Amino acid sequence: MDKKIAFIGTGNMGGAIIHSVCRAIPAKEVVITDIDHKKAADMAADLGCVQVDDNAAAVKAAHYIVLGVKPQVMPAVLKEITPVLQDCKENGKQRILISIAAGLTMEKIKDILGEAGNDLPIIRILPNTPAMIGEGLMIIIAGSDVAQDEVNGLRECIRTCGKVVQIPDEKLADAAMVMGGCTPAFTYMFIEALADGAVTVGLTREQGYIFAAQAVKGAAAMVLENGGHPGELKDAVCSPGGSTIVGVGELEKNGFRSAAIQAVVQACRATSALGK
C-alpha cells in the first residue's frame, strides 16, 4: 500500500516541512530521500519516517511527491523521475506532484516532463522556514486538473506547518513566495538591527534579541488576531511628542518604508528570473 507523502530533498526548506508533516500524520507514512544518504538516514532515524535510496523509489512509494530541490536542479530530477511517473499512471497509481521551487511554473514543469506531464496533477507550495516550529506560511496553488479533495489531503499533511492559504491564480505565485519565503530573512535583519540599537543604549545582546523578537511577534499577532490595520496600530503607539514618534521619524528619514518596498519588488523580480 502506498505511503501518504514522499520528499525528494531534505534541505533547509524540505527538512522544515518534513519535521512538521511528521507531527501531522504518522511518521511511517512519510518517505524521504536525499543525495546525501547519511543526512536522510539521520533525519529518518530522528523522526521515525521511511528513508529510500533514490528518487525513483520515492516516487514509487507514496501518493504525494514533494520536490524539495533547488530550481536549477529541478529539470534533472524531473527527467529522472519521468519514466517512473508514467509507469505509476499506467498501473492506476497516479501521483500528485508537489513543487516548492521558487519561480518554476506548473507549465514549465509539464514541459520538462513531456508526455508524462500531460495530465499529471501538479500543486505548488510556497513555504517558509518557520514551518519547522509550526509558525510557517504555506501558500498552495493547485493546477486546474487537481481535484479539491486532493488539495484537502495535502492540507491535512501540512496543517502543522502553520497558516495554510490557497490562492487561485499562479500569476501571483512569485509575489506570494517573496512575501512568505523572503520576509523572514528581512525580519531577522530588522530584529538584529534593533538589538544593535539596544546594545548601543546599554542593554545586553541577549536582551536585545529577546526584547526585539518578542515585540515583533506581538505586533504581528495584533495584525493577525485582532485584524488591526498596521497604520492604525502604529498610530496608537505614537503619543504626541513621545519617544515612539521620534523613532518613527528616524525610520522614515532613513528610507525604512522605501527600503522594505524595494526589497519585495526586487526579490519578486529575482524570483521570476529563477524559472527562466
Detailed description of the structure:
The chain has 276 residues and is an alpha/beta fold. The chain has 2 domains: 3-168, 3-Layer(aba) Sandwich (Rossmann fold); 177-274, Orthogonal Bundle (ProC C-terminal domain-like fold). It contains 11 helices and 8 strands. It has helices spanning 12-24, 37-47, 55-61, 74-90, 106-113, 148-158, 173-200, 205-226, 230-237, 243-253, 256-274, and strands spanning 3-8, 30-33, 50-51, 62-67, 96-99, 122-126, 136-142, 162-166. An 8-stranded mixed beta sheet has the order 3-2-1-4-5-6-7-8, sandwiched between helices. It is elongated, with a radius of gyration of 21 Å. It starts with a strand and ends with a helix. The mean pLDDT is 93.
Question: What topology does this entry show?
Answer:
Elements: E1 3-8, H1 12-24, E2 30-33, H2 37-47, E3 50-51, H3 55-61, E4 62-67, H4 74-90, E5 96-99, H5 106-113, E6 122-126, E7 136-142, H6 148-158, E8 162-166, H7 173-200, H8 205-226, H9 230-237, H10 243-253, H11 256-274
Parallel strand pairs: 1-2, 1-4, 2-3, 4-5, 5-6, 7-8
Antiparallel strand pairs: 6-7
Helix pairs in contact: 3-4, 7-8, 7-11
What keywords describe this structure?
ProC C-terminal domain-like fold, eight-stranded mixed beta sheet, 276 residues, 14% strand, Rossmann fold
Spatial strand sequence of the major β-sheet: 3-2-1-4-5-6-7-8
Number of domains: 2
Order of SSEs, N→C? EHEHEHEHEHEEHEHHHHH
Instruction: Estimate the global geometry from the Cα principal axes.
Output: elongated
Short description, anyone?
The protein has 276 residues and is α/β, with parallel strands linked by helices. It is built from eleven helices and eight strands. An eight-stranded mixed sheet has the order 3-2-1-4-5-6-7-8, sandwiched between helices.
